[in-house]
Amino acid sequence: MAIEPGAKAKISLSAKVADTLRGDIAQGVFPVGAKLPTEPALIERFGVSRTVVREAIAALRADGLVESRHGSGVFVMEPPAPSGGLHLFDEVHRRISDIIEELELRASVEIEAAGLAAERCSPAQEAEIEAQLGQFERMMQDGKSTAQADFEFHMAVARATNNSRFEAFLSHLGKRTIPRSKLADEKTIQALRENRDAQLHQEHLAVAEAIYARDPQRAREAMRTHLGGSLKRYRVLGRSATENNTTSIDQ
Question: Nearest Cα to 162, choosing from 106, 209, 122?
């Protein structure tokens, strides 16, 4: 039985595999439209585990270099054009109204992602969603910040769509897509954290269970409820801020 490398080694190996494949794509070894070798072929070529290969392919998808086509394989895409200056979430927004607007944008994308995940996800992707649920619960029980675990759950759902654009969208936003990561005021963070994590975990479970059940409509509704709940929580904060004559989170 092969020994799985440690976390740091795994990250290093996946980065090396991804860099080699990027070079192959840039040099035309795999031209636009070409199908990458299968997982077993890449495992044999690089002498690494399936996990390492999948992480490398995920990195290429995040870069917009390849896309996974359900039941067909991974194909090389036209390299993305340089950014024209669209930086939706690059600025640090402190106003609650900004966070509400960002959540509305997320909802329009992630509700559909949940439905597609229910239709398309593989057993391995189900296992990844389950693993992220477990990580969130552990952080919650330990009284630690769940922001990263929250983000990773949403990323796992995006990957389960097998449409690289959803993953790329959330990757672009990064952890900032979890609104509480923007809150500079520790008192505000603590106020949201109380009883919130348990509720978020239940909402995540509802999304995951609908995906496992292969029920797209139920998955969409569960994600709508989840993100709608976040919108309600921040609207309450917004009304409170207005009553206190301020629209800024850090005041």
Answer: 122
Is 67 within 8 Å of 77 (Cβ atoms)? yes
In tens, the pLDDT along 74-96 reads 999 987 655 554 455 555 445 66
Q: What is the dihedral of CA 69, 119, 222, 241, to 10 degrees?
A: 20
Torsion, Cα 47 162 128 182, to 10 degrees, reads 110
What is the predicted pLDDT for the residue at 113?
Answer: 96
- Report the topology of domain 96-243: Four Helix Bundle (Hemerythrin (Met), subunit A) (1.20.120)
Look-up: residue for tokens 């969603």? Answer: 129
Q: If you count them, how many residues does the chain have?
A: 251
Query: pLDDT for 101-152, tens place per residue?
Result: 777 888 889 999 999 999 999 999 999 999 999 999 999 998 888 888 898 8
3-state secondary structure of 124: helix
Q: Which CATH number does 7-76 carry?
A: 1.10.10.10
CB atoms within 10 A of CB 250: 13
Put simply, whether the predicted model's pTM sits higher than 0.70 gets the answer no
24 close to 65: Cβ distance less than 8 angstroms:
no
Distance CA 51, CA 72 (A): 19
> What per-residue confidence (pLDDT) applies to 71?
85
- Buried/exposed 99-109: b ≥16 CB within 10 Å, e otherwise: bbebbeebbeb
Lookup result for tokens 């109204």: 97
